[in-house]
């Protein structure tokens, strides 16, 4: 794959070079990590997944930065590894590379325990997922399948021992300014390098980044996400946005506006669908149609995030309140107010 997708070079207004390395993070799913080089630091932003092809692509990408662009970079020579957020396609490459990465690893404090206590995170998150899916009205058989899929990708990942934290407004290596943009992930950060913004999955060129309800993980959800979109639009002088997937974005305001409109349309649609009381699983089916594999879970979470946003703000009410009062783990049915 790395032969068909070359490493791309970008320059910032201050003369920093940024190299985009394409990685097949999962089968047929491309992600990007970035090598950022100037006289003050050599840093790697994100490391891809623990999937063998992803690791191979990362190593061959680093070789290309060295051989084709003449930059003296290797895993062993880095000054820092910065993780944009605690999702497996961005950080879990640390597991197979643990022996070779000697540089300090930075992540936002709200995602640190995902990296340092991964085994605990999987147990706690899968419990929360089960409770959410019950309330969403997903049947036991499908819940078991979704749980299995959720856990599978996590089997090969181990916790990392030492991780440094980075926080809002912090300057790192006189090169990166950290902007905390929770929503897609609690510890999602954007990293501003002169006039280039590295956004992880906060703003993508074609798809709206996946959202799950805050009920599943605090600091995620649509409300936080929309606030974090405002944050990147008000940053002055951003000329180029480089994401963890898909192509670069040149007009960040226009892209953010399009993402915002897409969420508004979904909110209106879910509100309309709730003229008739429905569960989150029924809403997901009505809006997204029948999905396959992991997409079923993503669609239910996405519907859950929009329903949560509407419910938090008093646009929806729970229809089956008596049943909710009686049952220890009830299915929630929402209706429009
Ligand atoms: Zn992500
Ligand atoms: Zn991603």
| CATH fold category name of the domain at 8-124 and 153-251 | Metallo-beta-lactamase, Chain A
Secondary-structure element string: EEEEHEHHEHHHEEEEEHEHHHEHE
Structural class: alpha/beta
> Briefly, what CATH class of the domain at 8-124 and 153-251?
Alpha Beta
Spatial ordering of strands, largest sheet: 1-2-3-4-5-6-7
Q: Helical proportion? A: 25-40%
Ligand inventory reads:
zinc ion
Radius of gyration: 21 Å
Explain briefly what this protein structure is.
With 337 residues, this protein is of the alpha/beta class.
Can you tag this structure with a few keywords?
337 residues; binds zinc ion; 39% helix; five-stranded mixed β-sheet; seven-stranded mixed β-sheet; Metallo-beta-lactamase, Chain A; globular; alpha/beta; 11 helices
Break the fold down into its secondary structure elements and pairings.
Layout: E1 8-11, E2 17-26, E3 29-37, E4 42-45, H1 52-67, E5 80-82, H2 88-91, H3 94-97, E6 105-108, H4 109-116, H5 118-135, H6 140-152, E7 164-166, E8 171-172, E9 176-180, E10 189-193, E11 196-200, H7 222-233, E12 240-243, H8 252-273, H9 280-288, H10 294-312, E13 316-318, H11 321-326, E14 334-336
Parallel strand pairs: 4-5, 5-6, 6-7, 11-12
Antiparallel strand pairs: 1-2, 2-3, 3-4, 8-9, 9-10, 10-11, 13-14
Bound molecules: zinc ion (2 copies).
Describe the structure.
The structure is a single chain. The chain has 337 residues and is of the alpha/beta class. It has 11 helices and 14 strands. It is globular and about 65 Å long. The model has no long low-confidence stretch (mean pLDDT 95). The structure holds zinc ion (2 copies). One zinc ion binds next to loops.
